[in-house]
Amino acid sequence: MGRNRATLADVARRAGLSKTAASMVLNGREGTRLSAEAHQRVFAAAEELGYRPNIAARSLRTRKTATIAFVSDIVATTRFAGGLIRGALDAARERDHVLLITETQGDAAFEQYAIEAILDRQVDGVIYAAMATRRLTVPPAILGGSVVLLNATSSTRLPWVLPDDQGAGATVAETLLAQGHRDRIALIGRNRQKERDPEISLAAEARLHGIRDALAAAGVRPLTEIFCPEWLPEHGYTATRTLLDLPAAPSAIICMNDRLAFGVYQALGEVGLTIPDDISVISFDDDPIAAWLRPGLTTAALPHEQMGRKAVELLLDGDDDGPSLVPMLLRRRQSVAAPAGTVPSPRPPGEGPPAADVSSGVAR
To answer: Does the model's pTM come out above 0.85?
Structure first.
């Protein structure tokens, strides 16, 4: 066992002051008439003794514990969405707060237990997060305190943080238009369930609107839109084989997420077509594998770390309700080029900088 923890009384004794005077100095409270030299004695004594304040006692006075609860469905164990936690951890640490993380795995009974446990610890607020961008039901137990929804919305009026999927859809379409693609742009990944049920997905409808609005503004209609039962590589592969059976092959393919694009790469490679010389491919999410494909996949990146940071800022500042949309910057790699015989326009504004070191295969 280590030595006993130093107390406030120990610090006061070492500094030659009363406990009350030492406490006022250590807590930065106004009103003390102690000299600067006495202040220095208190701080020196605290450092020499390794004094740490009693957080539980302080929380009783201030009603603050410098802790934030991060409650999610499967964010912590999902490699792809882990940036939400990284961003929140960084922002909490910068504000001298600790993040308490719990994951429910969609188990309602465990969620209730976990929420009761964190509320018993008197957290300063709760970030309620989802792995997939969607609408969810907020547990009533946490509504009595400060709550921010992360990667999610709710019918309850609460501040929430989402990626700007609609803006990303517009950026993706405008990128192809700027390269000279017009009447042969195909879209794969239409999915009525994702587009119509916000409890499954908010991203699908938003991305679709952004794409369509940008194309319509340029007087362009998609060559075709292919429906997929899920946004997985095998469905991207099947959709691409369908596209290649059309009388006129597309000059560019927009994929609703990167996993679909992985299947597109395989299907095009099997028939000897080259990306981007024969067909350009562009997508959403910036999955870690996107930078390692050959050629690297141009994709609108989900800003998970920035979203996690924003959630902590909203929670601690407490001055905002409603939506906070975080931009999805385009990671420009080598999968998009002008169609043969076409001169591309200058890069559209707001696209974001190119990804770093993509030519050497080093992730951003």
So the answer is: no
